[in-house]
Amino acid sequence: AKDSTVSPPKAIKLTFSEKIVPAFSGIKLSMGHGMAVSTKTSLSDDGKTLTARPTSPFMSGKWTLSWHATSADDGHKSEGSYDFTIK
User: Which residue, of 53, 57, 58, 73, has the fewest CB within 10 Å?
Assistant: First the structure.
């Protein structure tokens, strides 16, 4: 959740109100000084939940999750971000 303090997550799920196009949707995890964690993403069977599984360890500190998604229905693009802290 936004502004939460958590243990390093094994998976992060974002659920959208409509189906998204996986090729034009994604998640980025980064710290302010350029540190990033790469992820492997997958899309749920209903096409509405994007799951990112980190492929490397997190450092403790403040992280930003940035996301972007493209609607499968009308091609509408949306994006956003939120911060969280790894203890």
Answer: 57
